[in-house]
Specification:
Strands 1, 2, 5, 6 and 7 form a five-stranded mixed beta sheet that branches. The chain has a five-stranded mixed beta sheet with strand order 10-9-8-11-12. It has a two-stranded antiparallel ribbon with strand order 3-4. It is elongated and about 85 Å long. By secondary structure, it is an alpha/beta fold. The chain has eight helices and twelve strands. It has three domains: 2-97, no CATH class; 106-150; 159-233, 2-Layer Sandwich (Nucleotidyltransferase, domain 5). The chain has helices spanning 2-11, 108-132, 139-148, 194-203, 216-225, 235-250, 252-257, 259-263; strands spanning 18-26, 29-36, 41-42, 49-50, 53-66, 69-81, 91-93, 159-168, 172-179, 185-190, 209-212, 230-233. Bound molecules: zinc ion. Zinc ion is lined by residues 43, 45-46, 48, 82, 84, 87, 89. Residues 160-246 form the Transposase IS204/IS1001/IS1096/IS1165 DDE domain. Residues 40-83 form the Transposase IS204/IS1001/IS1096/IS1165 zinc-finger domain. This is Transposase. It comes from Actinomadura fulvescens.
């Protein structure tokens, strides 16, 4: 029996904050029956340790899969009474920091793994991969998980790339800011006008060079906010301008007559 207990502690090592009482095989999923430890915990209001049990309640959360199957943990948690007279929180449900976060239906480590998936693949693709990994979530849940991820600290690049992109072609546009040296995405601004970019540049000092398309609006915003910054045109837009100028000069009618020459432009 000792060996089985050891094996359980290895397989479910992420649940070591709990006492595992039983594991049930339910074909499609593995159910772990567990309880919290009988240890005093601090009152969330006054911080006084208490182990006085007022009642018991259950929580069900999904954990990372085992054996390619979903793992569901049914945890018995205590409702504890604060022993400090006058404390506004007379009773409270205990939490298990780092494992069971308040109001969440997944363990912290499963939420972390799913967060990594949706960060790379977002909605539909994230949902499809999660099903393969035996932790299926819907597309909308995948997006909700993505929105819940904390944003990384904003870094101001030396060379800033500015370009527009269509949220809805010919209707809604946005401006994307990147580190032109690494390609890392820095920020996304609403619209593709000058004002949002000017405000961003004024509130995020440190940019020395701005690499942009031929848009007059972006150029004006950069001149107003960073008069000393060097403005350069990125390679793609430079070629685009040269190509359009050449087509104007040669004439579209001539290019159509000679498709081979047009393809080489
Ligand atoms: Zn208290």
């Amino acid at each position: 029996m000792r060996e089985i207990d050891d094996l359980m502690s290895v397989v479910f090592s992420g649940l070591s904050a709990l006492v595992i009482e039983d594991v049930e095989d339910e074909n499609d999923l593995i159910r772990v029956m567990a309880r919290t430890r009988n240890e005093p915990v601090p009152c969330p209001v006054c911080g006084t340790l208490t182990g006085r049990v007022h009642g018991l309640c259950g929580r069900t959360v999904t954990d990372v899969p085992v054996d390619g199957r979903q793992v569901v943990v049914s945890v018995r948690v205590r409702r504890l009474a604060c022993s400090v007279r006058g404390c506004p929180r007379q009773t409270f449900r205990e939490q298990v920091p780092g494992l069971l976060e308040r109001y969440q239906r997944r363990t912290s480590r499963l939420a972390g793994q799913l967060g990594a998936v949706v960060k790379e693949l977002a909605g539909r693709a994230g949902a499809r991969l999660s099903a393969v990994l035996a932790v299926a979530v819907s597309r909308s849940t995948a997006l909700r998980l993505l929105m819940r991820l904390p944003l990384p600290p904003l870094r101001i690049p030396r060379v800033l790339g500015v370009d527009d992109f269509a949220l809805k072609r010919r209707h809604r546009y946005a401006t994307i800011l990147t580190d032109a040296e690494t390609g890392e995405r820095i920020d996304v601004l609403p619209g593709r006008g000058a004002d949002a970019l000017e405000t961003w540049l004024r509130t995020h000092p440190g940019v020395e060079v701005v690499c942009r398309d031929g848009s007059g609006a972006y150029g004006e915003a950069i001149r107003r906010a960073l008069p000393d910054a060097v403005q350069v045109s990125d390679r793609w837009h430079l070629w685009k301008v040269r190509r359009e100028a050449l087509i104007d000069r040669v004439g579209v009618r001539d290019l159509r007559r000679r498709p081979v020459a047009a393809g080489r432009l």
